[in-house]
Amino acid sequence: MNSLRLNIVLRFVVLVLMQVILFNRIDFLGYINPFVYIIFILSYPVNNNRVLFLISTFLLGLTIDIFSDSGGVHAAACVCIAYLRPVVLKFSFGTLYEHQTIKFSNMEFGSLFGYISILTFTHHLVLFSLEIFNMSQILLILQKTLFSGVFTMILSLLIILLFSPKSK
């Protein structure tokens, strides 16, 4: 197994464990729940096999669902943002995405922030819409999406910026 595959598998396992052991226990005011496991989707290599990526994101969401007893909402939200990711990458990074030369350590903060925020809020909107599944509760869905999304974005940006390899 080459080092890239080992890195991907290790990131998968570490993020699932962090989510299940640490971040699933955070429930501040009933609205703020960080879902940092989506860093796996955000940081997955751009030029890898798309079908393998979609399967991996489904397994990631399913694993979180199994540990959270949440009935598939995480799997659906993960596959949704994995499917939309190429469009968001092209929107956020433009020609860098077309040439597949994206490295978070070399990105300007505005592009990285836009990329992470679009996918995070999309993930959370799908997740909470499926979890609550009641249009009369749209304000609750939007409230949970906003508060959890902001908290997840802050934690994700910190983790990505702290642990991404520095450019030389």
TrEMBL record:
Keyword Lyase: no
Tree of life domain: Bacteria
Keywords carried by this UniProt record: Membrane, Transmembrane, Transmembrane helix
Keyword Transmembrane: yes
TM region positions: 6-23, 28-45, 51-68, 75-93, 113-133, 145-164
Protein name per the record: Rod shape-determining protein MreD
Organism: Microcosmobacter mediterraneus
Lineage, highest ranks first: Bacteria, Pseudomonadati, Bacteroidota, Flavobacteriia, Flavobacteriales
